[in-house]
Amino acid sequence: MRLLNTIKVALRALRRSALRSVLTALGIIIGVAAVIAMVSIGNGAKSQVEASIANLGQNIISVFPGNFTAGGVRGGFGSASTLTVEDAQAIRNEVTGVVNLSPEMRDRSQVLANGANWNTQIAGEDVSYLDIRLWGIAEGSMFSEADVRAAAKVCVIGKTVADQLFQDQDPIGQTIRIRNIPFKVLGVLTVKGFNFFGQDQDDIVVIPYTSHLKRIARRPFLNSIVVQADTPDAMPRIQQDITDLLQQRRNGREPDFTVRNQQELAEAATATTKTMTVLLGAIAGVSLIVGGIGIMNIMLVSVTERTREIGIRLAVGAHGRDVLTQFLIEAIILSVMGGGLGVLLGVGSSQLISHLNGWPVLVSTTAIAGAVAFSAAIGVFFGFYPARKAAQLDPIDALRYE
């Protein structure tokens, strides 16, 4: 009951100086709003990157050409490719848990069709490529296993290539020329848009990897091998099995390949956004400290202004802890009120930024709870000294104070 009365007295004191109370809480309001807005923008950017990674496929493990040493000449990652179709077949046949696999070839080339030309990416892939990348066919169909075995001159194209070469015409069944070699268009891929690197995923021509090896690149080595695991939990084991198998096939020579899983790629891609989120949140958090200092200053002024009131309360029987509790509650109310208004302002400003700039935002309940809890802690921390000073006033000196 005594605590309830103390809260009422504290609220009455704050109402007497309503404008000053609001201005005092303004630092906390701005601080909490800034923390929530910055963290929401950072989390939104992180979720967008993660969605782009997920858009590349699920449970993906990639094998890239790695370091090499030959005749005293040494090279780093990607400096030479020694991955072969036989390596891909060995992974498919000997590593358990692999549900899909595609040997990959990559080149850029000028493509001609219908009196137009366009420079695009030429991807040599297996039939399972679309299943691995969670990609569909909008029109027509994918090439078949028989086409891969025969190194057939067939392809499927992305929406960007279709728009550039055929415009309003139906591309299905028409012929495009890649390095003067005719390829029949079997299908058009569904629209995927840009990835997190800013590359247009629809600007692509996909042909059988065997056709790429024999007709386009005319070299025996692959650019990479992409593998899909059956479950996320199996990925570390499959990654290690692929590493051991390829090392075994090289008879113990220095590894000339690198095996990476999708989680490692996602962590690398989101590392920057995580750092920026923490940095922005920390910078915004400084304003919370400044707001807390403002509360302490105003509470010290309030103690000075209300010295006679404190003396009267102590003289009529109030305990020092009652005075301490009252001023501490006033500081906590100011900070919590500022925290609540800051949450509303932070969420609203996040949504406004998203609407005006088209940025993704993800309002975090953890950030909201943390900001409010931190603002309450600031009220306790910065309010304790003024409250303690008020509680330690001598009643006689306080009553004499003018």
Characterization of the model:
The structure is a single chain. The chain is of the alpha+beta class and 402 residues long. The protein folds into 2 domains: 182 residues, no CATH class; 175 residues, no CATH class. The chain contains 13 helices and 12 strands. The strands form 2 sheets. It has a 6-stranded mixed β-barrel with strand order 4-5-10-7-9-8. Strands 2-3 form a two-stranded antiparallel ribbon. Helix 2 packs antiparallel against helix 9, helix 2 packs antiparallel against helix 12 and helix 11 runs antiparallel to helix 12. The chain starts with a helix and ends with a helix.
Question: Summed up, what is this model?
Answer:
With 402 residues, the protein is of the alpha+beta class.
